[in-house]
Design a protein that fits this description.
This protein has 226 residues and is mainly β. It folds into 2 domains: 16-123, Beta Barrel (Thrombin, subunit H), CATH 2.40.10; 131-224, Pdz3 Domain, CATH 2.30.42. Helix content is 14%, strand content 45%.
Length: 226
């Protein structure tokens, strides 16, 4: 992300929406420069998933783990990164960031509320840094919980090496059920990513999880992502 100062008047800014209110199946529209060549390309699709965790990167580019992103089937091609994802009311609800190279019609966007938080942090500190936990996870819905005899929450698929999560003892296979006594729900409305995004670098959070059928609590100090 970058903040630009434009020396020009009479510009019409886009309206920012509320990504916390998004629902799977909702219609979205992506705009960008497809393949770095076709400017103002418009594609339409729906929200396929919320609260996804992905690893984004490219040839010769360092990969980055992104948490809590929006998944959409609106065509997002190379060159679209940084373009807006709109709802049908013309509000920006995401920023396009990645596309799956191994499948068709699987694109990802950062929720606009995450961008809002980053901008607010920049205004206060002059930096875009945000709190970092360091896990990739899968949301456990009520149906998945019943089928697999698991609690509703977030199943940790992997823990980043050297991350605050690893330092505090979190492991793959843990199921996070609460953060600071706020229940992690199975519908992405209250997810790990959304909860952590409201915290600050240096905050200590109490994570309640289930490991091998036992409830445990860990104190994790959030850090700046390096």
């Amino acid at each position: 992300m970058a903040i630009l100062k434009i020396d020009q008047n009479n510009l019409a800014p886009v309206e920012l929406g509320d990504s916390d209110q998004l629902k799977v199946g909702q219609t979205v529209i992506a705009i960008g420069t497809a393949l770095g060549e076709f400017r103002s390309t418009v594609t339409k699709g729906v929200i396929s998933g919320l609260g996804r965790g992905i690893t984004a990167g490219g040839v010769g580019v360092a990969s980055e783990k992104l948490e809590g992103v929006i998944q959409t089937d609106a065509a997002i091609n190379s060159g679209n990164s940084g373009g807006p994802l709109f709802n049908i009311m013309g509000q920006v609800i995401g920023v396009n960031v990645a596309v799956s190279q191994n499948a068709q019609n699987i694109g990802f966007a950062l929720p606009i509320n995450l961008v809002k938080n980053s901008v607010d942090n920049f205004r206060k500190t002059g930096e875009f840094d945000r709190p970092y936990l360091g896990v990739m996870y899968q949301t456990i819905t009520e149906n998945l919980a019943l089928k697999n005899n698991l609690p509703i929450g977030s199943y940790i698929q992997s823990v980043a090496s050297g991350s605050p999560a690893e330092k505090s003892g979190l492991k793959s296979g843990d199921v996070v059920v609460e953060i600071d006594k706020e229940k992690i729900m199975g519908d992405d409305k209250i997810s790990i990513a959304k909860t952590i995004s409201r915290k600050k670098i240096g905050d200590e959070v109490i994570i309640k999880l289930v490991r091998n059928g036992k409830y445990m609590e860990f104190v994790v100090k959030l850090e700046k992502k390096i």
